[in-house]
Input
Amino acid sequence: MSLRFRGWISSHRFLLFALLIWALIALHFRLPVPRTHTSKQRQSRQQKVFQYKSKHGIAKSQEICDEKSQLQRVVITVKTGATEAHKRIPIQLQTSLRCAPNLFIFSDMEDDIGNVHIYDALEGIPDSVKENNSDFDLYRKQKVLNDPVKIATILGNMKDPRRPEDLAAWTLDKYKNLHIVEKTWNMKPDMDWYMHIDADTYVSWPTLMLWLEKLDPSQKSFIGSLSFVIENAFAHGGSGILLSREATRDFIDTHNGSVASWNDKIHDNCCGDYVLALALKDLDMNVKNANPTVNGDPPAVIPFSLDRWCQPLVTMHHVAPAEAQMLHEFEARRKDKSVRQTEFKVSFFIFPIPDSCIETFDICGAFQRFSF
Output
């Protein structure tokens, strides 16, 4: 190949790659798709997709955990509830959380799943906050049953008596966030980063490591996907909330008692991630927006856009167990295990782009960009 031709390819690689993606998408959408499906047909089709993805090979621990040594200074917390824990946590332990050496799972009831302990995030909240507070009706009923299967079966659809349109589990959930931050620091202080996620959040570890390399834990950083209640900004919990060492130290140690001072105020607020943002704002820590690097959408809803090709993807939310397994296998069989937004959308849903093709037409290079 002549130097002139190679130079032309180099200068036009974005255009070539865009044309390649356009061709793949056009081919995908020209395939015949039935207009309607019965529930059985949809279930069968989903199973076939899962089988197709799985036949490429099951992810091995070493393949996906090559960066484990870098995780030694990172703490991961998972927020769940007794009505869902046994449904959601096992698949996380097998997939996105299998590489986490410092993992703490919090619920609204102490429990164990295999050899993994689940902590009660609400333990230690004063009785004065819980008594005569209907938000804790579910909490009290769970303690009476004291059986994960019965709790999920009997109480899974229990409604909030103050807001019958809401599940009681969702109302109780808002009391957890502040106490998870406090309990985690007390159990594992002085780590570089504390990443707080939900039980249906998927984390791409290789991409997370690339992101954290660019951040400074000695700065007071409160990072997440920006959301609003009226005009008040907060970090959406399902997308993942990242707190630096200094931010957590300032909140828990320097301003010891800050969490307890909010116990009586949580009742009149909507959500735990919102309350956490209010508490941190009182200490002059405002959320830094990192969307779409941290992202509140499931895989199928992530927007397709060429300007997001170089945008790394650290988290996805509302990820079903079957999707989590597929995502884990998708990462494991790739040479470059970091995930970028649009390239992921194409490779995962439409047509697997070979690693050699990604390397040849690497349009990102030094321009790979993380949010904010």
Q: What stands out?
A: The two ends are 41 Å apart (CA to CA). The longest strand covers residues 74-79. Residues 64-289 form a domain with the Spore Coat Polysaccharide Biosynthesis Protein SpsA; Chain A fold (CATH 3.90.550). The longest helix spans residues 13-30.
